[in-house]
Each structure stands twice: as structure tokens, then as C-alpha cells.
Amino acid sequence: MHLVVVHYHYRPGGVRRVVELGACAVVRHLPVRWQSVVLAGGEAPAVAWLEHLRAQLAPVPVQMCVERALAYMAETRVPVSRLRERLRRFWAGLFNDLSGAPAVVWAHNLGLGRNILLARELVRACHRRGIRLVSHHHDWWFEHRWHRWAELRRTGVGSFRALAETVLAAHPEVCHAVINRRDARALRTALGRQVAWLPNPMPPPAPVSATEVDAARRWLERQAPTQGRPVWIVPCRLLRRKNLAEAILLTRWLRPEACLLTTGGVSSREETGYARKLRDAVHRHRWPVWLGALEEAGAGAPGVYALMRAAEVVLLTSILEGFGLPYLEAAVVERPLIARAVAHVVPDLRLLGFEFPQLYREIWIPTASFDWAAEARRQRRLFEKWRRQLPAGLGRARGLRLPWEDPRAPRVVAFSSLTLTGQLEVLAQPPEQSWAACAAWNPRLVEWRRRLAGGGLQITAWPAKADRWLGPAGYARRWWRLVRSSRAGHSPGDPLRAQQALLEKTLASALRHPLLWAPRS
Known about the structure:
Elements: E1 2-6, H1 14-29, E2 36-41, H2 47-57, E3 62-66, H3 80-97, E4 103-108, H4 116-129, E5 132-137, H5 148-154, H6 160-167, E6 174-178, H7 181-191, E7 195-197, H8 210-222, E8 231-234, H9 244-254, E9 259-262, H10 272-285, E10 289-290, H11 304-310, E11 313-316, H12 325-333, E12 337-340, H13 346-351, E13 359-360, E14 364-366, H14 372-388, E15 412-414, H15 420-427, H16 431-438, H17 443-454, H18 464-470, H19 472-483, H20 495-508
Parallel strand pairs: 1-2, 1-4, 2-3, 4-5, 5-6, 6-7, 8-9, 8-11, 9-10, 11-12, 12-13
Antiparallel strand pairs: 14-15
């Protein structure tokens, strides 16, 4: 059998990690004679990563097929008609070349909508040839990316129904994998057995060697931002949804002498405004913060796990996660984790046996600590801009109301409910001043600060139950079960109803976080 992996690109990030770990699990742990693994994408991956993957999958050969028509639509200027033709020729040529054995296609993030033509032509090609297609959803185009609707319309998507029938296709050849139970429940109401919960793979913890950790510590000591300081780390890229100002606030309050470090840089033009504003504030106030430490670190830089192991604390302040890999990574490297309890992620991880002793839901800020009137004006302006870009097909979305329309200021608000400008206003205050104003509203932080002063925070242990779900063998079994799910007696689902169920749960939380409304907040 041939395994065909499809993704827009193979840049560093969570999806590439799932491709790497998942492909290794599937190839090594299934009773299948794999003839080849084919990576199809819009750009070639880094040579070192591809060679590493080939070594892991040997002796199964790995082929890389690059076609720019598979890349993000926003990153190409080729007319839609020409892209469509190139995609049809590409899929026909690729599948014609896979001789001697059947194929299964494993396509990642078609629901992100970054190239709807890719999704449409792939679904059609698999349907015509009877090829099993696993559509693996990590993110969604409507998950606070409403501006993408205009791009989708420009590429020929005429309606919500047409879009749903592409990204949530109900053909018997197609099955859908989602990475959290919330999405699985929403989709199963309309697509039934076509949908499965497939939590991301994570091999059992392999200890980072003392040599690697020592090298990471020496590397940190040579860097100007971290010299002589303990390091707190957020293993992430510079994304608005990572809510990094909150990580800066936590570090300044709980360990003011520490340097906060994030690993990745900006990977999308949509995030450049957020990243620039955050970097400017760090530079202006001379905060001990190093954003994107590994972005251009060079060959001598340590790996992410070694860097996390060398750090004192791991932070995760994200307001939106599909799976929440850093929760598990902190357990792998045996470092204390301080994290937001992302509502649809933590219950899944607890089901897998994880316990997280330092979770919080919100950080509460008295409205007297910042210019409430100015923040309310910013929120009204941003909210109207966000609401205007919502597709008309959402119906009730146009009637959504801003929570802060009451002219009377509440006593406290969640830090995550502020715009970036409002967050930076709070951060600009001396940490002892803002802490004095906010400590009474955040008793968990008071307790963690006390623990830090008296010996340290607790570490999350890796539970044996997690290996059965996330280990290579367990992951491969669940993936294969979805591939082999019976197509006999297939009852076509309702893609539009499935999409509407996901849209409803997105809108239910859409009002809470202005960081997600517009890039320039």
C-alpha cells in the first residue's frame, strides 16, 4: 500500500510534528506492507528534516512531490482557472504513478481553507478513483479567521453549502479525523461514523540527556537576553491566540528576575502586526523577554526539548488550542507547567490520565488599573470591524452584542478579554504595583508565588494510560480503524449541518477575546 501525505507546506510547527510522529507510527506499527510514503505539498521541507524522516521510515522509500498549486492561495498570484487545471494534472499524475498497490491519502488541515481548490480537487480525485481519504482537521477556517471568507469567495466558493461539501465531504471514500472530543461530538451529529477523535501522537517520554541539557544551559548563558537569569519558556510561535502578553505578566509577577523566552517566530503575514507591537513594547520597556529565540538561532542552537528542560518553568497562556501539545511536552521534559485551562482541551487530557497542578482559568484585573474608557472605545471599534466581516450566511451572528456595552465599568475583567493595547497598558506598570492591585483577585497566583519562594512548583507526571492512546502503537491502531471503517451501507451525512454545529460553538466563545477579532488590536 502507498501512503500519500498532503499538506500545504512542511514548515516547523504542530502539523509537521504530527506528520512526522504519525507517519512513523503508521509505517512501523501496522500489519501493512508499505510500498512508499509520498509527501505532497506546495513547497519542499528543510533538507535536514526530510532526511531525518527518511531515516526513521527506512526501508520504506519516501518521495517528495512539490507543486506550488498546493500552497496557500494567499501566497500565489496564479489565476484560479490555471490553479484548478494544475491541481487536476497533479493528482492524476501522482495517482497514475502509484502502481502495483492501493493508496490511502492522509490530508492535513483542509478545513483551514487556505487552499479550497486543493481540497476540492483532491476530494474529487479520490471519489472518482475510490481512494480512501483521511481528512485530518487541526484547525478550521472559521476559528476566528473570518476574514478568510472573502478569500474563499474569490476562489469560486459560492455558498456556505458549497464550502461545507468540500471541507466536510460526505462521500463514502472520505473520513474525518479531529483532535478534540468537542469537535468530534459536533461533527458526529451530522456525519456519523465518518468522524473519529484522533488525539495527536506523543511517544512515551524519552529523557533528554544531561549532555543536551548542559549544552542548552551554556547556550542560554551566552545569549544577551538570558545571561545570569532563570528562564521561563513558552514553546510556541508568535501568534495572537497564544496571548503572550499574559505570559509576560505572569513572569513579571511570579518571577520578576526571570527572562521569558518564546521559541518560534512569525509564520504568517496575518500575525506580523501583533508580533511587531509586542516586540516594540519589549524593546521600549526593556523587559527581560526574548521573543522567537530559535527563529534564526543557527546550527548551534539547542533543540526545543533541551531548551525546555533547561528552563525553570513552562508556560502556556493560549486562549485557543486544538489539542494543546505543550501540556504534554512539559510532562515529557519534567518541568513545572503554569497554563490556562483551555476548556475543550484539558478535559480530553484528563481523560488520558494527566493531572495539571498549576492551571488557571483567568487572570483578573481591576478596571481601575487601566484606562477603562479608552479600552471600551477600542473594543467597540474592533468589534464592529469584526462583526462586519462575518459572512451574511451566519444569520444570527450579525445580532451579536459586545459584552462591554454597559457604560458602567465592572470591578474586574479578565486580562485575556483586553485588546493587546489594553494588555500592554497593564504591563507598562511596575510589576510590584500591578501585583499589589491584582493579587487579592488571583488567589491561585498568590499560592504559586509562595511555592516558588519556598521550593518550587509541582511537575505533571506522565500517566501509563497516555501511552495506550498517544504512543505509536495505539495511535496507529486508531488511525487504521478509521481508514478501515466500513463503507458498506454508507448513509450520506449532512456537511452543511456539520459545519453549522462547529460554527455555533465558535460563535459561542467569539465575544470573549478581542485578540482574535482583528490582527491590529
